[in-house]
């Protein structure tokens, strides 16, 4: 049930348009459209028009320009983007930013994050999570040149090309709906698979949030990415951990774990010494494709190679996407799914002020 209408405490903030960093500009950039591309200067005067194709060197720009298509998209580096493209000098760089209406941004984010073939209620849950997440980022980044990028650092965004009618419907069915805790948008973290139990954010990023507590998520166990194994050669491990200056790696030992069974701390033993480090830092060195979560075990084999075995995928905080999928298959609706992973939250409809 929608229990309130949310209006930001800062009435000067607007949430109609998301600013998405696409890339840093090179010396030659090109843009395409099925219609005319109009180029506007900082005073909103049209300074150039190009039909279907525009090539330029943005590196010498001293002030921002905007590209606006008379069609429904601008293509950049093989992806089609709704809205406008801003090319903006900033701190010695030139940024290429997609300025896109919030709900249309979500048309791409939701199918970029989860398969469009998933049950409707799981798609709606992802839509509400994604909307809440970007609204909070827009508040935090209001004085920055952009709100989010296109990667898992924020939310995956692949433009109009990725849109699907199933996920578009999920966005439209939840239009403007966000999650609040004590009147403010929550940090609606999500991940792929919890491995059976979600994590407290204090154990990942050092900050505790009352609405994000560890919960048992048995729904994840039938997912295709629940369990995983990885073998790493001695040479690869030496290279991966070379920045530690420990020489040849002799062993990697789990020192202790959190109540969720995720590794807290490891000890790395090398020919030049030993070093203890947090599992989240170890995962950064290993890479998320190798060490899919910190709920794992590791041993050195007789041949000198390392064997890793674990469950789950991602940081483990907040909503488990595969858990959401399984809950939807068991006929939980999206509000029940979200209330399972985020505690004591309210559902609210955004009041668009500009």
From TrEMBL:
In this entry, which stretches build a coiled coil? none
Taxonomically, the superkingdom here is: Bacteria
Name all Sporulation stage II protein D amidase enhancer LytB N-terminal domain ranges: 90-181
One term under GO cellular component: outer membrane-bounded periplasmic space
Q: What is this protein called?
A: Lipoprotein
Keywords attached to this Swiss-Prot or TrEMBL record, sorted alphabetically, are:
Lipoprotein
Q: Which GO terms describe its biological process?
A: sporulation resulting in formation of a cellular spore
């Amino acid at each position: 049930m929608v229990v309130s209408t949310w209006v930001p405490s800062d009435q000067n903030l607007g949430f109609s348009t998301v600013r998405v960093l696409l890339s840093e500009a090179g010396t030659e950039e090109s843009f395409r459209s099925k219609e005319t591309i109009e180029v506007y200067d900082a005073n909103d005067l049209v300074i150039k028009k190009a039909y279907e194709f525009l090539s330029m060197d943005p590196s010498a720009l001293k002030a921002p320009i905007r590209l606006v298509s008379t069609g429904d998209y601008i293509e950049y580096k093989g992806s089609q983007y709704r809205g406008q493209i801003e090319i903006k000098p900033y701190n010695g760089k030139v940024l290429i930013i997609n300025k896109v209406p919030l709900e249309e941004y979500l048309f791409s984010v939701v199918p970029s994050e989860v398969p469009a073939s998933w049950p409707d209620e799981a798609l709606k849950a992802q839509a509400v999570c994604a909307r809440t997440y970007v609204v909070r980022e827009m508040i935090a980044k209001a004085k920055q040149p952009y709100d989010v990028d296109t990667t898992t650092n924020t939310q995956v965004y692949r433009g109009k090309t990725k849109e699907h009618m199933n996920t578009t419907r999920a966005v439209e069915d939840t239009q403007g709906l966000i999650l609040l805790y004590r009147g403010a948008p929550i940090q609606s973290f999500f991940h792929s698979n919890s491995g059976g139990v979600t994590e407290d954010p204090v154990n990942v990023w050092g900050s505790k949030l009352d609405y994000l507590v560890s919960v048992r998520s048995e729904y994840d166990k039938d997912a295709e990415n629940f369990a995983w194994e990885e073998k790493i050669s001695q040479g690869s491990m030496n290279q991966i951990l070379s920045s530690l200056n420990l020489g040849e790696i002799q062993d990697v030992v789990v020192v202790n774990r959190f109540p969720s069974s995720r590794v807290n701390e490891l000890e790395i033993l090398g020919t030049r010494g030993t070093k203890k480090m947090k599992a989240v830092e170890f995962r950064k060195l290993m890479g998320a494709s190798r060490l899919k979560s910190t709920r794992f075990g590791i041993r050195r084999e007789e041949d000198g190679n390392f064997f890793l075995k674990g469950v789950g995928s991602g940081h483990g905080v907040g909503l488990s996407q595969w858990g959401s999928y399984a809950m939807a298959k068991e006929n939980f609706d999206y509000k029940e799914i979200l209330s399972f992973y985020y505690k004591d939250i309210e559902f609210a409809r955004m009041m668009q002020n500009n």
